[in-house]
Amino acid sequence: MTCPMESRNPEMLVAYSAGELDPETASALERHLAGCPACRLLAADQAAVWKALDAWETPRIALDFDQRLFRRIREEVRFSWWERISRPFRPMPFRQALPLTVSACLLLMAGLVLQHPGRIGPVEPRHETVRLDQVERTLDDLELLRQVGMANQPESGNSNAM
Amino acid sequence: MGAAAATLDYDAELMLRVKDGDGISFGLLLDKHRAPVVHFLYRLVQEQPVAEELAQEVFLRVYRSRSSYEPTAKFTTWLFRIATHLALNWLRDGRHERGQQRLDDGLSNGPGRQISDGRPTVEQQLVYEVKLEQVRQAVATLPGKQRAAVLMHKYEEMEYSQIAKVLGCSESAVKSLLFRAYESLRARLAHMG
Q1: A87-102 burial, b if ≥16 CB within 10 A, otherwise e?
Q2: Which of chain B's residues have a Cβ under 8 Å away from the Cβ of A61?
Q3: Side-chain half-sphere of B109: how many Cα atoms within 13 Å?
Q4: Is A11 in contact with B111 (Cβ distance < 8 A)?
Q5: Are B18 and B91 found together in one domain?
Q6: Based on the domain organization, do B1 and B93 belong to the same domain?
Q7: Which structural domain range is residue B78 located in?
Q8: Are residues B89 and B153 in the same domain?
Q9: N or C: which end of chain A has fewer CB within 10 A?
Q10: Is the ipTM of this complex over 0.85?
């Protein structure tokens, strides 16, 4: 067997410590270890690490672990039902809401146009009424001024004479 | 390998039953995998309450994903992938630095070590705790992925190919990760042999 260190295959020594090698390869490696101090040292160190890790025990799991988990699952299931019911009423992201809002506005405007066809048009009659009033008032004012002017004429004539 | 295939079929079958709304099958999966997942997470994050909280999240995610579950990989690969992802995120967020507990805190609820007559002497217990602290510290110094790889290799006895699938890397990358990790551990723990 070629030396695992020289053949750049030191992973083989890790696999040996982990008992992952097939019996044939393991016994070939053991024969190699007998004559190779570098590999022997690495294998011994790896075995020490393996043994140290074996000693690492874990604490007991809390007795209410399952109870807590099932409580969370129940809450989740209840929440998911609420989600399904409330989803249509939740505020949407802007990108999703914009086309819907625009469509709704257009529909509303179309409805208004169809319901009140006379009220929405190019000419606003109220605006014209105001203008007629103004014209009438202006004409009345002019007539008044003319009358006042005529009434003042003899006086002005007198003053000129003076 | 035959046993592994049978396990694959059994776990996947249970999960498919969960998908069909069978709660009992979820209970069976929980019974089978609760301890391996909690212990793996405990050794990864080294805080028992955090490990249990993360394990709850793992099983909750399994339950949540039941409707979209497809048995494309081994169930344990999927399970440990979720667990590793959550734990590495937790470690990356640096949350462990705020509340690192002492080793003996973790052991206070632990099984204790039974030596010869069943009850360790005070001296034996102290020696054991010092050694264990060294092991814990040595593992804690490993980068997250190396740590996860070592724990899956050593304690879950996973094959390189499965570890690779869990970590989302190649098999040769796993071999390299493991060798570097064990190299660090040898430097710190070889004297304990």
Answers
A1: eeeeeeeeeeeeeeee
A2: 34-35, 38, 52
A3: 12
A4: no
A5: yes
A6: yes
A7: 1-97
A8: no
A9: C
A10: no
